[in-house]
């Protein structure tokens, strides 16, 4: 156990000192904000990196729920978390009393009561391994609850709300935007990422719809026979609720072995070019500035895919992708077809 969770909670008198202790606990954990967010999520909490940064950047008393989420992610034992919360409540009580004496507002968190009853407080012991994300029968209800929880968290922490979302059809989406797209950041995106992972697509589960999530959505759409838009709508969620669509990806060692076999003249060069282009990820999809896409290990463009007369599922097959790269190499005798700084 590291020092951040082994040391007793010192006695502090002000909210600023309390936050300073939390910053020190975070620093001594050795975890980044994004790692803390993921570990907190695995332990059943919602603590986006932006919320964490806001909390640790202020000198006001943070919400109990965010304190619990941070300490849980750092692996703090439950008994020590209770002591952290007792210290926080003592400070809150002093601030409230001071506010009454001075006739002004107390320096306490805004919004509803921040107390987390012991009977409903989530477990805050060591973070368990994240199980494969299930897809419940009432999937839209789960998304709605996540969305409500995200709104409450934003209100609790004082963080700015996300950009305005598209019109919501609550009957069909259970409170989530009708379309999720790149740039969004909310619990509905988190749920989408969980279920992409459950279907075998590795993606950060952080609630941020970034380029990685866009890429994985397009891969799922390609294998599921859906329009490859890179956005998530009700039809995509319905497909995620069904049987697995994405074949198990080749591990990198198998990819390296196949590359060396297909390019015996320059095995190291073949591995390096594929690594440079795609990170040896057979399901890598890149969106370029003009909106076109590049697919798979050797990043074949939309134009090339059309010229080859194959669909996206085929071009994402590592055996086909490597074999086609070999055919191109055979005509030129080098890897000049690909522009990658190796």
Mean pLDDT: 78
Distance between the amino and carboxyl termini? 41 Å
The number of distinct structural domains comes to 3
As residue ranges, the low-confidence spans are 1-6, 106-173
Q: How much of the sequence is in beta strands? A: under 5%
Largest sheet, in brief, is: 3 strands, antiparallel
Q: Can you tell me the CATH topology of the largest domain?
A: Muramoyl-pentapeptide Carboxypeptidase, domain 1
CATH level-1 class of the largest domain: Mainly Alpha
CATH structural architecture of the largest domain? Orthogonal Bundle
What is the topology, as strand order, of the major beta sheet?
A: 1-2-3
Summarize the structure.
This protein is mostly helical.
Report on this structure.
This is Peptidoglycan hydrolase-like protein with peptidoglycan-binding domain. Residues 189-238 form the Peptidoglycan binding-like domain. Pfam families: HTH_31, PG_binding_1. This protein has helices at residues 3-6, 15-29, 33-42, 49-56, 64-73, 78-102, 139-157, 170-173, 187-198, 211-224, 234-240, 252-262, 267-278, 302-308, 312-315, 318-332, and strands at 285-287, 293-295, 300-301. It is mainly α. The chain has three domains: 3-102, Orthogonal Bundle (434 Repressor (Amino-terminal Domain)), CATH 1.10.260; 139-240, Muramoyl-pentapeptide Carboxypeptidase, domain 1 (Orthogonal Bundle), CATH 1.10.101; 252-332, no CATH class. It has a three-stranded antiparallel β-sheet. The model is unreliable at 1-6 and 106-173 (pLDDT under 50).
């Amino acid at each position: 156990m590291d020092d951040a969770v082994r040391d007793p909670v010192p006695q502090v008198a002000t909210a600023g000192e309390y936050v300073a202790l939390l910053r020190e606990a975070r620093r001594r954990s050795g975890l980044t904000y994004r790692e803390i967010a993921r570990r907190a999520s695995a332990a059943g909490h919602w603590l986006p990196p932006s919320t964490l940064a806001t909390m640790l950047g202020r000198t006001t008393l943070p919400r109990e729920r965010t304190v619990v989420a941070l300490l849980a992610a750092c692996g703090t034992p439950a008994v020590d978390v209770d002591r952290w919360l007792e210290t926080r409540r003592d400070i809150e009580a002093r601030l409230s009393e001071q506010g009454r004496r001075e006739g002004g507002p107390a320096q306490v968190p805004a919004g509803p009561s921040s107390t987390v009853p012991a009977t409903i407080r989530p477990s805050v012991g060591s973070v368990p391994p994240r199980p494969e994300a299930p897809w419940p029968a009432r999937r839209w209800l789960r998304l709605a609850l996540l969305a409500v929880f995200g709104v409450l968290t934003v209100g609790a922490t004082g963080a700015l709300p996300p950009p305005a979302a598209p019109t919501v059809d609550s009957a069909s989406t259970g409170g989530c935007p009708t379309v999720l797209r790149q740039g969004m950041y909310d619990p509905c995106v988190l749920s989408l990422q969980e279920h992409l992972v459950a279907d075998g697509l590795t993606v950060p589960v952080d609630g941020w719809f970034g380029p990685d999530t866009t890429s994985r959505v397009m891969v799922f759409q390609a294998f599921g026979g859906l329009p490859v838009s890179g956005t998530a709508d009700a039809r995509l969620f319905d497909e995620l609720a069904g049987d697995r669509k994405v074949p198990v990806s080749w591990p990198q060692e198998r990819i390296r072995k196949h590359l060396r076999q297909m390019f015996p003249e320059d095995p190291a060069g073949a591995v390096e070019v594929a690594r440079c282009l795609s990170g040896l990820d057979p399901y890598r999809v890149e969106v370029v500035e003009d909106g076109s896409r590049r697919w798979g290990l050797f990043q074949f463009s939309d134009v090339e895919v059309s010229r080859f007369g194959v669909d996206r599922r085929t071009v994402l097959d590592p055996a086909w992708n490597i074999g086609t790269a070999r055919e191109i190499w055979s005509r030129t005798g080098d890897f000049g077809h690909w522009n990658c700084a190796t």
